[in-house]
Amino acid sequence: MTRRLAMLAAVAVLVVTALVAAGVGQGSPPPAYPVSAQAARSEIAAVAHGSALARRGEQLFDTHGCGDCHTMAAGHYGGRLGPRLDAILQGTGVSQIEADIIHPPHNIPGFEAGLMPENFGSRLPHADIEALAAFLQTAARGAASGGGH
User: Fold this and answer.
1) What is the count of structural domains for the chain?
2) Are 43 and 73 in contact (CB under 8 A)?
C-alpha cells in the first residue's frame, strides 16, 4: 500500500510540474516581447563568440533550467512563464542583472510575482551568478545589435 501511495504521489508531482511548465493556471499569457529573426541570429552569434564567462553562463542557464520558464534565442529556449530575457534586458548593466538574479523583481508587467526562485543568491556561488549575468547581457546586447524589439 505504501508503495502504491508513493507511486501516486510521484505521478501527481509530474502532472502538476507539467501543468505549471505549460502555463496552466497562471492566468493570461505573458506579454509578447518579440525579437526578429535577424536579432535572434545576432544574439546567437554574440554568445557563440562571446567571452568564456558568457559561454559558461549559457551552460549554467541550461543546467539550472532557466529556459524552462524564460525565452532566449541563444540556446533556443522557449519557456513561457517568465519574460523573454534577451528582449527585456537590452541596455541593462551586468551588475543590475546580477542583482535581479539574486533578488528577482516583482514588478514586471504581465508576470506573476514570486514565480522566479528567490534563493539563487544562497544556492549559487557568486561566480555562477556572474557567469549567468554575462551570458544574459551578451545575449541581450547581441539581440539589440541585430534589430532588437
Assistant:
1) 2
2) yes
